Each structure stands twice: as structure tokens, then as C-alpha cells.
UniProtKB/TrEMBL annotation:
Protein name per Swiss-Prot or TrEMBL: HAD family hydrolase
The species this protein was found in: Shewanella ulleungensis
Length: 334
């Protein structure tokens, strides 16, 4: 983790304009931002950065009435009742779904990708009611982004592990801003026009690889994601605080093992952050081949990870319907 995070931080320092704040996304961004600041400390550099709470599912929710988002929210396969699609994919509660859709519509069986057009028609027909339901969350989230200075940027520099830039694309749609995505691995690098906004994506470890192409750090990215996690579950909602409207109440999904035993994960990451600072201070650099060799040894050889910490490699994969998965067990490394 130390070499990988210091390499990423070094590239961010080298490739992002000094006057542009960096916004670190989702649960992975929690440790990526801390690693970046540790590297800056070691190099005696000052740059602005923020950890930004966001998730695909939450953006699907607050963009549920925006047809520009359907290319992303309806991309993954699904089979089941329309009610379950709206509840799991768009994070709407039971009462919210009943406010918007009648019982017959809610219970109709749908399949993705086959029924994509039909689902879009239903969403479009109910867009006014959807908008009414999601507006409080959407307005609260925009107020939260305002506190981080996001709304004042002419273009956003976003950081995540990777890979296809879905959150970057959705934020560009939500805010009508050009975005620059900085990733370890970028499946779709380069400049793209997404709903009249430019989205530029750059991968510092690898570009132009997709899941299943045989590039181990991507094919087994669950391993990395299980360690790079914030202390709480998936970001699911936000409201203005009832007693103090200048503050926010945040809502999260269930915790997986690495979050329940976060004190153990913190000990692992403490060493990684110290390494980032050390690498910056003494000018220690890694090239891509060295990192791939180090990383691949953990991703392809059984029993490299001590038995006492194997339980922290659980991640949740609720968006795709897979529940909780242990990365080590999944790939036969435990």
C-alpha cells in the first residue's frame, strides 16, 4: 500500500495545477486523500484537497428524474420487480416509492438490459413526482458541495481508484461542469463529451484496460477496494440538520468487516501513510513495472496476507446485487 499510494500522490502533485483543489471521491477517497496529504507533508508542499462524500447509487437517486443519467443508472443487468429496482438501484424508500408509483407498476417484473426503454418511459411519465421526492436530498447535497467550494470551480479535478469514471460523469451531469478524473487505472482515458460537458480521464498506473482483459490489478481490484475504505458504509443520503441548517445529517448503508474492525485497518494504513511521507521526504520513486510486480505478488499467491487480518478484506457489492464478498476468498487467496 505504501509504494502504491506514494506513487499515486506523486503523480497527482506532478499533473494537477497548483491552484486547483483536488476532490477525493467515495469510500476509497478517504485514504487516498490522507495519503496525498501525507506525501505533501513529506515534500513540504501545500495544496488544497477535500474528501467528498458521494456514491454511484446516491447520484442515481438525486438524478432519477434526469434522463441524462439513465445511461449509467440502467446500465447493469437486473431481473425482478420494478419496486426492487427502484429500491436497490436508486435508494428510494418504501414510502417514497408508494408516493410515486402505483402498486401495479411497482410489482411489474422487469429485466435489464431488455426492458431499458420501457423503464425509461415509466420514469419519464413519473418525472414530476420523482423530482418532488428527491428535491430535499438534492438541495441538501448541493449545499454540502457548496461548503467544499465545489460549486465555485470552473472545472473539477476528481480523484478515485478508477475505473470507468461513472461518478465523474454523473457529477459532471449534476453540476454542468467540465471534469478531470485522476485514477490509478482508467478504462476509458482521454477526453470525452458527456452531455455537452468535457470529461477528461487519466490513469497513472494503467490505461485502456477493462475487467476481464487479464490485467490483474484491475481484475482483482476488490483486493484494493477492501483496504481503501472509509469507516462507514455506502453513502446513501443527506439532510439539512433540523436544529442547525448550516450542518448536515449523513446516512450510510451497512458496514462490512473492514469498517466494523476499522481500528485494525487503521493500523495497516498508518504504516502506509508514514511510508508516503517518508518517500516524499527522501525522493523515493517507483516505476509502473515495480509496482505491478509488488502488487501482483499479493494478488496471485495464496497466503501472502496474514490469517489474523483476512476478515478485513470484505467489501459490499450491493449495486450489482452481489451482497458482501471477501476478496481473498473470492480469488482463492485465503
Amino acid at each position: 500500500m505504501g509504494p502504491l499510494l506514494s506513487y499515486f500522490a506523486q503523480n497527482l502533485v506532478n499533473h494537477v495545477p497548483r491552484d486547483k483543489p483536488l476532490y477525493f471521491l467515495a469510500r476509497e477517497g478517504y485514504w487516498l486523500e490522507k495519503a496525498y496529504q501525507s506525501y505533501l507533508n513529506g515534500a513540504d508542499i501545500q495544496r488544497e484537497s477535500h474528501y467528498l462524500l458521494v456514491s454511484r447509487a446516491f447520484l442515481f437517486k438525486i438524478l432519477a428524474s434526469d434522463k441524462r443519467s439513465y445511461a449509467y443508472s440502467l446500465k447493469s443487468s437486473f431481473s425482478g420487480a420494478f419496486y426492487d429496482l427502484i429500491r436497490t438501484r436508486f435508494l428510494l424508500s418504501d414510502s417514497q416509492i408508494k408516493q410515486i408509483f402505483d402498486e401495479e407498476t411497482a410489482q411489474e417484473l422487469v429485466y435489464l438490459p431488455d426492458d431499458k426503454k420501457k423503464i425509461i418511459e415509466v420514469l419519464n411519465q413519473h418525472s414530476t413526482r420523482i423530482e418532488e421526492v428527491i428535491t430535499p436530498s438534492k438541495q441538501a447535497y448541493l449545499s454540502y458541495l457548496e461548503t467544499l467550494g465545489v460549486l465555485h470551480q470552473d472545472s473539477l479535478h476528481l480523484v478515485d481508484v478508477g475505473y470507468s469514471g461513472t461518478i465523474q460523469s454523473l457529477l459532471g451531469i449534476l453540476l454542468d461542469k467540465d471534469t478531470h478524473g485522476h485514477y490509478l487505472i482508467a478504462s476509458k482515458p482521454g477526453k470525452h463529451i458527456i452531455e455537452n460537458q468535457q470529461a477528461e480521464m487519466h490513469g497513472y498506473l494503467k490505461e485502456n484496460v477493462k475487467l476481464g482483459d487479464g490485467y490483474l490489478p484491475l481484475d482483482r481490484s476488490m483486493f484494493l477496494e477492501s483496504l481503501l475504505t472509509a469507516p462507514y458504509g455506502q453513502f446513501r443520503g443527506i439532510r439539512l440538520n433540523t436544529f442547525d441548517p448550516t450542518k448536515f445529517d449523513f446516512y450510510y448503508g451497512r458496514k462490512v468487516a473492514s469498517q466494523r474492525y476499522f481500528h485494525e485497518l487503521e493500523q495497516v494504513m498508518k504504516g502506509a501513510l508514514q511510508y508516503c511521507e517518508h518517500a516524499a521526504k527522501y525522493g523515493i520513486h517507483f516505476d509502473v513495472e515495480e509496482l505491478e510486480m509488488l502488487f501482483t505478488s499479493y494478488l496471485s499467491k495464496a497466503n501472502m496476507v496474514p490469517r489474523s487480518v483476512r476478515h478485513i478484506f470484505d467489501i459490499d457489492d450491493d449495486v450489482t446485487g452481489n451482497g458482501t464478498v471477501n476478496a481473498l476468498q473470492f480469488f482463492g487467496l485465503a
